Amino acid sequence: MANETGHFRMEEPAPPDQQPENQTKAAVEAIQQLGQMNVPAANETNIFCLTIVGQIEGHIVLPPQNKTTKYEHIIPTLVAAEQNKNIDGLLIILNTVGGDVEAGLAIAEMIASLTKPTVTVVVGGGHSIGVPIAVSSTYSIIAESATMTIHPIRLNGLVIGVPQTFEYMEKMQERVVRFVTSHSRITESQFKELMFRTGELNRDVGTPVGGIDAVKYGLMDEVGGIGQAITKLNQLIDERKRTGETEGIKQ
């Protein structure tokens, strides 16, 4: 950078005592702008925490007063976590009302395709398209007071009343059913029964499922919280490392 005399000088790095402060500011800025923590660097935790909260925003930008999770932020974050050698596992905390179906399925597919162990924790709620995301991990946990609302696919705004529209909705619904049943222990018939049940919600169809019932139906693996999730994730990480060491010996 040039000074007042026109000579150039090198920028001096921040003193060591200011570096933690700068890192803290960067972390806070990432949370404010993206709603995400920075991907851990060397010598930091080997578990990356990903939060999916509010409404999942897809192809349409939601009003600014809505609390949203943008899928264009989640996808590169998952790619970075998969590539980062310092990260051994991902903890996904879920508290969402649902949102864009295709965006939610994209996030769920990304989580399911990761090679590193993943554990989801549903706190508060994992409703609508949040259900596929909740079951997409290696192991899924739900708080006892949390709920998951299972209902048919809905469209907002202008709907063209032609057979093709309903066929599209039916195919989209089958995608959700197929994904959930293939990544959990619930049967297709049981899931559809919950999806189309009437009388549970006023003027609507669908079923709100509590934490204990979600485990009973086979949607989630365990009732618990953050402590149980971290313990399970560490177990999965250790198992993955042992498997890798065994395969190395065999080779």
UniProtKB/TrEMBL annotation:
Region (Disordered): 1-24
Regions that span the bilayer: none
Domain of life: Bacteria
Record-linked InterPro entries: ClpP/crotonase-like_dom_sf, ClpP/TepA
Biased composition (Basic and acidic residues): 1-12
Protein's recorded name: Translocation-enhancing protein TepA
